[in-house]
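pinging the channel bc i need a second pair of eyes. not urgent but kinda urgent?? the chain im working w is below, pasted from the shared doc
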Amino acid sequence: MQLGRVIGRVWSSVKNRGLTSQRLLIVQPLKADLTASGRTLICTDCTGAGAGELIYWVRGREASFPFTPEDVASDATIVGIVDEVNIAKKKAPSC
């Protein structure tokens, strides 16, 4: 799973039949410190995420699992909305 931020939405009138009724959102991948990492991508959404929300997403075969038994053609899917991120600060080595 990877972190990302929803930055937009895509509307499409012509698409794969398996994507009918699926939300398509534009996601900016993020590093653990929440800075941008890489190019934006389009993800299907099974959570109801909205613009500006911090999410986690999966890529590959796992991207279609949230829609089972339906056959959704997706290689990236938002699978969760993040409430909070806690990152432990590194401690200075003791001598």
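so DSSP finds no helices and five strands in the chain. and The radius of gyration is 16 Å. — does that match what u expected or am i reading it wrong
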